[in-house]
Amino acid sequence: MGKLYIEGNNILSGTIEISGSKNSAVALIPASLLCDEKVVINNVPEISDIDALIEILEYLEVEIIRNGDTIIIDPINIKNKMINEEISKKLRASYYFMSALLGRFKKVEMYFPGGCNIGKRPIDQTLKGFAALGATIDEVENKYNIYTDELKGAVIDLDMPSVGATINSIFASVKAKGITTINNAAKEPEIGNVIDFLNKMGAKIRGKDTSCIKVEGVEFLSGCSIDVIPDRIEAGTYVILGALVGNNLKISKLVPEHIKALLNKLDEMGVKYLIHEDSIIISKGKNLNSVNIKTEGYPGFATDLQQPITVLLTQCNGISILEETIYENRFQNVEYLNKMGATIKIIDRKIEINGYTGLFGEEVKATDLRAGACMVLAALTAEGKTEIDDIEHVLRGYENIVQKLKNVGAKIKKD
Ligand code: EPU
Fold first, then answer.
1. What interhelical angle do 232-245 and 22-31 show, nearest 10?
2. What is the reported pLDDT for 407?
3. How far is residue 219 CA from its own chain's centroid?
């Protein structure tokens, strides 16, 4: 595993451009397998999760041309092969192949998906959707054999607004016979991006950005192109960085509305920033107020920004309470923040951050993707040198992070 070396407490200024959204791109790529012609996906981030997906496409004998941030996918000669455990475990998004292959071939064989170790992350809601559409699911020791003669439109009532189960239900129903209604659907902007892509192909999906999505099955999907939306979690991470050590740091090519819940919390803290149509200019906050935060599905405060914002809460005056409602194991960053000088207590699914505390350089670890982002922010804020181990986790989701940070004046290097 690689390391990052950061010398902190430098004021950063200039511009950081936001890349295409990881969580959109990892769904749009499998969505292309439902198409009966060639598709083009633009603004795809160059991150290792995308490399892992491309490997799966190549294994399925899909024709791919990758040119910078554009990927052309021709799924015409795809082979419906069993996806083995090693491939399935590479990332969470591998489970989009379950529904895309089921939707295309009415049959799929693969293993339980991988992803960050941040909780149990069951897939019961995805399977419930497949079963409602008429599929039989045989599970033996983490291996799923899912098949049917015909997928038929149905009502799918999700127990919780799961991003994965919403997208999987859409993929499995887009070519099913009749109408599918997905109730209690998730409303994350990435799902809207996926719906736009499928509708451009000729799918009939209504209810984008609402908790009730209706899919009228079609037989044929035609080629088209789509742009991946800006990554709201990458954007939020760098906006928080600006509040920590920015001097008119400009975060560009983002959708401010997608990080509204974060901006509301920055307002409460007293951080000053300027919003333009697709950029935010932000500077280090002074004398910040403590705030309470609870993670929720979109448009609530994103769980993926929970670990990054913890660093900013250590710089606020007084006690802040942060409650994680989505994942059971998303506080692995706390041990390392405390090692760097923070005073944080874990109380069940909440943490209590007692600020203000200065941070100083230490040897720490990126235990998962967003915990790693948290460590990078902490290191850039801290006095002295920090060494972050297991940096591969961060490279899964932040395009070109080292160069982007160097460009605004950070002292950072990777081995
Ligand atoms: N859940 C179930 N059963 C299911 C599905 C979900 O109990 O069948 C639970 C999960 O255990 C979790 C909650 O519902 O507690 C939310 O899970 P969801 O399905 O919404 O999450 P996901 O699809 O697995 C995506 C992102 C995550 C992001 C969440 C929430 C991708 C590849 N991953 O995960 O991103 O945290 O939505 O917004 O899109 C990240 O980027 O760091 C990341 C973890």
1. 170
2. 98
3. 31
Give the residue, out of 19, 22, 23, 99, with the most ligand 1 atoms within 8 A of its beta carbon, to mutate for a pocket test. Answer: 23
User: Which residues lie below 8 Å from residue 238, measured CB to CB, with a gap of 6+?
Assistant: 16, 18, 249, 251, 404
Residue 115's pLDDT band, with cuts at 50, 70 and 90, is confident
Q: Hey, whose CA ends up nearest to atom 40 of ligand 1?
A: 304
State if residue 162 touches ligand 1 by the CB under 6 angstroms criterion. Answer: yes
User: Strands, E, within 96-176: which ranges?
Assistant: 107-111, 136-140, 143-147, 155-157
Residue 302's pLDDT is what? 98
Q: How far is the CA of 125 from the centre of ligand 1 (A)?
A: 11
Ligand 1 site-directed mutation target among 98, 112, 121, 301, most atoms within 8 Å of CB: 121
Q: Are 226 and 35 in contact (CB under 8 A)?
A: no
Mark whether 116 is an active-site residue. yes
How many A from CA of 77 to the centre of ligand 1? Answer: 31
* Peptide bond between residue 122 and the one before it cis (omega within 30 degrees of 0): no
**Residue of 180, 126, 130, 123 lying closest to 155 (CA atoms):** 180
- HSE (CB half, 13 Å, CA atoms) of 364? 31
pLDDT tens-digit map of 77-96: 999 999 888 888 888 888 99
Place of tokens 């967003």: 370
Q: Quickly state the pLDDT bin for 142 (edges 50, 70, 90).
A: confident
Percent of the chain at pLDDT > 90 equals: 92
Strands (E), 253-362: 273-275, 279-282, 288-289, 293-294, 316-323, 344-347, 350-355
Kindly report the protein residue whose alpha carbon is nearest to atom 2 of ligand 1.
Answer: 122
- CA torsion angle for 225, 228, 229, 231 (degrees, to 10)? 180
Residue 114 is predicted with a pLDDT of 86
pLDDT of residue 381: 98
Nearest-angstrom CA–CA distance, 368 and 180: 36
Measured from the CB, is residue 122 less than 6 Å from ligand 1? yes
pLDDT band at 116 (very low <50, low <70, confident <90, very high): confident
State whether the beta carbon of 104 lies less than 6 angstroms from ligand 1.
no
Selecting among 35, 116, 224, 316, the annotated active-site residue is 116
